Amino acid sequence: MSARITTKNELTITIDGKVCHGIQGDTILQIARANSIYIPTMCYLTKVQPIASCRMCVVNVEGVDGMILSCQEKAVDGAVITTHNEALYKERQNIMKLYNVNHPLECGVCDKSGECDLQNKTMEFAVASQSFTARDMHRPVENWGFISYDPALCIMCEKCVHVCNEVVGDNILAISVGGYKSTIINTRPGEECSSCGECMSVCPVGALVSTDFKYTSNAWELQKIPSSCAHCSSACSLSYEVKHSGIGNHEKKIYRVTNNYEFTSLCGAGRFGYDFANTGAKRDRALFTSAVEALKKAEVIRFGATITNEEASILQHIKESYGTALVCDEARGYQKFLEAYSSVSGKSLYSGSLKNLSKSRGIIVLGSKINDDNPMVKYHITMASRRERARVVYMHPIEDAAMQSIVTQFIKYEAGSEEGAAALLAKTLIDTKKVPSEIAAYLDDLDIGNLSAESNIGEDELEKLSKSLIKKSGFTLVAGSDLYNHPRAESIAKLLAAIELYGDFELILVPPATNALGVSLICDLDEDKDGYSVGYNAPGDFVLSAMGSGDIDMPALNQQEGTLTSVDKRVVPINAALAYDGYTLNNLACGLGVEAKYTIDYTEHLPVVKGYEAVAFDDLPDYFDASGNEHRGYLLHSLDAEQTGTLEEVADLPTYDGGVVYQCNSGNQFTSFTNKSKKLGTDDKLRGSQQFATLSKLNDGQKVRFEINGVVYERVFMIDTSMKGTIAINPYADMGLSSTTVSYYRFNQPKLEVMDS
Amino acid sequence: MSLEEFKNRNIGKQNYVKLDLEHTPQTPLGRFSRVVRRTLKGELFVGLYVTLREMINALFRGEMHTVKYPLEKLPISPRYRAIHDMLRLLESGHYRCIGCGLCEKICISNCIRMDTRYDENQRKEVSEYTINFGRCIFCGYCAEVCPELAIVHGGRYETASEQRASFSIFEDMLTPVDALKQQKEYDGFGAVSPNADENIKKTPLAY
């Protein structure tokens, strides 16, 4: 073992005779867990601040009277700690007895039975009799949509409240304090809850359970299939839990999704939107031949970015063998954006990561309705806001009510003026820093007054922004999908690169679709062109579809093995939870002469020149260690790139007068796969403010028809009272194959035709 | 008799007794007269009397020594593990099974399977329940683990039928509602011990 370098940040404590190392600021419990020393807890949840409601984690510290709560007590160098002795055992046993006062004896039917902390700890501390008592009272079950709450089973550990406030940022759950009468209350039942199910996942007992899953299966019957979420670019770690569909049907079915809730989170789409498998696919030789023929004669393969890295790799191989053009609307803009970014930053990949984002003290979000585009990024911003008291500057043309509790400054700019906003940001954030002369000259040349007027970002707002960040360190800039297909995307990319390079900022370019990052690294994408086309989850003359609507079926992302490239620049494995009997893309490729036995044979041949590693699929790790460090797949390597780009002069900012329609899926909808999920419900309304309604002469409930980028939408217009301004939100996840053809700027001004009802 | 004696196969040293039997007649007349003598002996009627007595007892006094299987069956020990029965609650008549899944879990031949759901009365309902008697080894674990004394071993020991479905449907195993009064508590594996009451520790009620 190499000698340990002791810095002044490190400390050494002795726990139960074992010498443990930690870092200044670590709690006793954190150090114990990192060193595999067991301290029982009931309310401790690693991903939130210590709750300290259970007192199970008490320990003795030499030289200190009484018992210390190890979850919140910071370790002091040289401390000698005892975690288990007679007195501590009695204390913990009494706590467990108290938890069991009037706890309904319904383990036989409770969903949590078998994975219940209360059951486990009651057994562990051998609670054989009860010595405490309280008068029981009637506590009816409450139904909160996806989740039902049984106050009689609740042990008031408060994990759910903390996770709702500190991680999700919804602030929906609260504690009604009243001694034995205390309960968890839903402050805004039925509305505004993002239905993420985080509260349910952290509940140690059966108090918060999924309404849908309730009483359908016992925990021990379900087989866990570790995988990654397929709905957005966060590719969160999750487990599909499968069991036979029923007595008469032996086919496996996904009953629920769980996650390692100590360290990770899921949004509602990940947790409840698991029923998107392409079922009923069969092998039909004739169809196979026609699919191979179609691929052979195809001039264009058009595909969505909700595919694995391996499939992207297969498509790239087909391109190399047959010269077929690859068109991926979802990833093309992003690829070009990354290229432009690299030309200034000198690196192939952006620097930020979600973990660092959650530790940032200053965060700027530009060009994304981040709460809907990528909830996991929003969760990490919330964590930074709650724990680090981070300044969160949210720059977007639409004010988002869901972000209100975490945003410290909202900067509204006009739709279309993202380039101006980026330039103003660059001016504000790096003008004072040491920058090369040409950039200094560029910043000096900016017509701030004009940009500020055109984009509607006040100079005072920028001044406030720069002042609020002045005494802080650890900044992250989050950029989103409004920018990638912006007409001036390249210029914006270069400006963001400059901010990252000279402004001490970490940058996260949130990929616009599940595997947009992977596709843009693996495939050489082409511009769309005419000719015979094959669509893979996209429109074409011959359609391969995992949605079940095409000419030949393909497996959905919960029916196949492979890897995804996440926003964290991590290559994460996905596993097949459900059976699939049809053909895969690899089968078709074999028919074309691009041979590999399995799709996952491509995993170790992912392009090393783009930052991938030559690791076989079966060698990819997929776990979290005791300290919560992620060991899923591997991190992409950021490679050096040539710094050939220069900042471009800001073009005239376009103006969007009148009503604007913003293409954005909301309410746990991301793709046509989430749309397919029956549990998530549908989002198929054009939503706008009263102001938009007046401006566009629309009434609530009126049916309108409009066309954006060749796709005709027929939508019911709904006035959303939580919205302001002249921009309406139009979802596109329900548009089937054409939902993947988003190669255009997200703000549009289509002609709205009122349809006769 | 010790083992050594038992193992002693030396028959020559045993104490054989020579029976004092009459000599076998040598002449045809002698043989004929022996047949006549034996045939007309009164002992025959002693035997016939015993048969007649037992016949009268069986037919008219209800003292039959055999059962008319399969029309009649002998009672079996309560500890015998035959085809399962599903019991009902005596008060409400509702089936006792709460769908906890323990029998399904403990079953070592994996022959129990159940579907449960959240019903309209906010209870866990057993929507389907089957035991595959082609695989069941009648180990009794399910009856032993059942916390509600719902699944027990009944008296149907004939594990042959035209079709397996005759046994494996929940309704078939369940006590018929009209036969609720005849439902007997089970004394075999998993039954409440006779001194169960003495072992209960009561929860304090301070208020």
- End-to-end distance of chain B: 73 Å
| Secondary structure: helix percent of chain A | 25-40%
Structural class of chain A: alpha/beta
Backbone CA Rg of chain B: 31 Å
How many helical elements of chain A? 21
Most residues in contact: chain pair: A-B, 25 and 28 residues
Which structural category do the helix and sheet elements of chain B fall into? Answer: alpha+beta
Q: Provide the β-strand percentage band of chain A.
A: 15-25%
Computed Rg of chain A: 27 Å
Oligomer: heterodimer
Structure description:
The complex is a heterodimer of chains A (757) and B (207). Chain A has 757 residues and is α/β, with parallel strands linked by helices. Chain A has five domains: 10-84, Ubiquitin-like (UB roll), CATH 3.10.20; 133-272, Alpha-Beta Plaits (2-Layer Sandwich), CATH 3.30.70; 297-332 and 516-635, no CATH class; 354-507, Dimethylsulfoxide Reductase, domain 2, CATH 3.40.228; 660-754, Barwin-like endoglucanases, CATH 2.40.40.20. In chain A, the strands form ten sheets. A five-stranded mixed sheet of chain A has the order 2-1-5-3-4, covered by helices on one side. In chain A, helix 9 packs across helix 18 (516-522). Chain A starts with 9 loop residues before the first strand and ends with a strand. Residues 1-6 of chain A have low confidence and may be disordered. With 207 residues, chain B is α+β, with helices and mostly antiparallel strands. Chain B has a domain at 84-191: 2-Layer Sandwich (Alpha-Beta Plaits), CATH 3.30.70.3270. In chain B, the strands form two sheets. In chain B, strands 1-4 form a two-stranded antiparallel sheet. In chain B, strand 2 and strand 3 (124-131) form a beta hairpin. The longest helix of chain B has 18 residues, at 43-60. The termini of chain B are far apart. The model of chain B has no long low-confidence stretch (mean pLDDT 87). Chains A and B meet through loops of A and helix 4, strand 2 and strand 3 of B.
